[in-house]
Amino acid sequence: MEVENDAAIAEESPKEEVPNKHDDKSEMKGEEYAYLDATGFTSELFKIELRGLPKYYGIGELKKLLNVKMKLSTNKIKIMKPGSPFIFICFRNQEDREAAIKALDGYKWKGKSLSAFEAKPAPDPLIRRRKEASTAEGEPLNIKRRTVEASATSLAYLTYDEQLKQKQSEMENVLQKFGKELWSSIPTLRTFVEKQRLLHGGLPCAFEPIRPSPMQDGYRNKCEFSIGKDALGVKRVGFRVGSYSNGFLEVESIAHLKHIPECMKQTVVLFEQFVQSSPFDVYSAETYQGHFRQLTVRMSHATGQVMVVVGVHLQSLSEEEKQTMKSSIVECLTSEPGKQAGISSIHFEVIQKRQQGQYTNPIEHLYGETHIEDTILGLTFRISPAAFFQINTPAAEVLYQCAIDVAAPSKSTSILDICCGTGTIGLCFARHCKQVLGVDIVEQAIEDAKHNAQKNGIENCSFFAGNSDDLIMSLIRHANIMPDQHESLIAIVDPPRAGLHIRSITQLRNARGLDKLVYVSCSPQSAIKNWVDLMRPCSKQLRGEPFVAKKAMAVDLFPHTPHTELVILFEREKEIKQELVVDSENICTDKPVDPQPET
User: Fold this and answer.
1) What InterPro entries does UniProt report for this protein, alphabetically (predicted)?
2) Theoretical Cys-Cys bridge with 422: which of 63, 448, 486, 506, CB 3.0 to 4.6 Å?
3) What's the pLDDT tens digit per position in 510-540?
């Protein structure tokens, strides 16, 4: 999946989760708590702290306990980190908060007695940081401020060869950490890990040289630009140079960034001029006022098409004002400079608080084509405004070819494409295998995948909308593998940064006939836990034979940034049983599988 190094957009409410230790409610009337009145509603007003949680629990099972079993009306659950002994839970009113405290205080869960009590609202981190960083004259010190170049392209000062050497070394460190985690958490694998280290220079599997990106400059086909003001108060479209929690909201120019293509820079300049002259103000995460907040620009290296998605807060605009805003946006982006930039598709995104089960904001098509198209490995792909598509198209070809090469499918192989997005990986595999079955939680992405299969004349691919945690076993049954006819099953996993939920890992482990798995990770550090769980010995939960990491390779999809994609081939290997120096009574006594938080 994609790694964005664009500056993050601030959340609707402060994210600081440190309990307020002051008892005097009068101390919550300063600037740091002004947001409680300014926002109209914030669940920070009805927050509780829950302590005494067990060492191993997942946010998913905690939500099930609170919302399903105990029927509590939670609005937000704020976890400090996986396995934290305390969390914060927010509600929509005082009645729900009191009911939760009554139900949870003293409740026994996993052998632990929980304690619940009221928690005071967190102070606004922006105001607090500014106070902490101010001098005697009241001027912010801005110690943590970085340039936009250092924030977005921190490796741009190195030659590309030097960048590749650094990334190869960093991925070696990740694999070493993976090996150490196997050693410490699974004692039964220590002999095996030691043998692998001797064979592979201290690593738990073979590691091939990093694959470079064919394009190093101007490679990004998607950027999400923030709309705000710079340090002088001038309205800008660009990237944030800090974060809300660090006390910085300034937006700076992206004109000198190496990884952004010229057509995007032209689009940003055009829209920045429009915003500066518009009667509608830019959105402020500090005051919650204003309208223009984000500009998403997508482009195609194959066709030169440019798609623009303007993200706004409607606030209390009348229908007439909304129409005026939309018309002025279209007029700006279809002007001669817009045509020169290649703008062919314009959309309007309403940024709002998402409801449970809602994964995207409402997006309205305003002008031109509804989609743009790009090509990978000779196939044409339709890209909708919110669909996932690798942000470096030329390097994506390298990545997908690596996945095909390590998987080595045959015409009797069925492919499970987990987190398939618009079907790019699965469709690239289609010509090499019997069939592809893909699943993704975003319905629009699945619609795009089906369209892409039809457009390319590919008939051996089926795509399903839904949560992969729930559908993997159904897909396997649908594949109808016949081992006696030498048919095989391979899973291709390309999850979000946080990795797969333990439910998905469990289903993959327990899947009969699935003997090979290719894990594509955009955040290798975060994926280590998934890799370890794939290799754990059999247990009541993980009934299927463990996988073994056989080969890894890095692909540079993000030149000038520290991010790297890592591909690891896992295979079921019965020989590993001989390395498990343990009797049947101890084979399930390893560290319990720690469910990952849902994202």
Assistant:
1) MeTrfase_TrmA_AS, MeTrfase_TrmA_CS, Nucleotide-bd_a/b_plait_sf, RBD_domain_sf, SAM-dependent_MTases_sf, TRM2_met, TRMT2A_RRM, U5_MeTrfase_fam
2) 448
3) 888 899 999 999 999 989 999 999 999 988 8
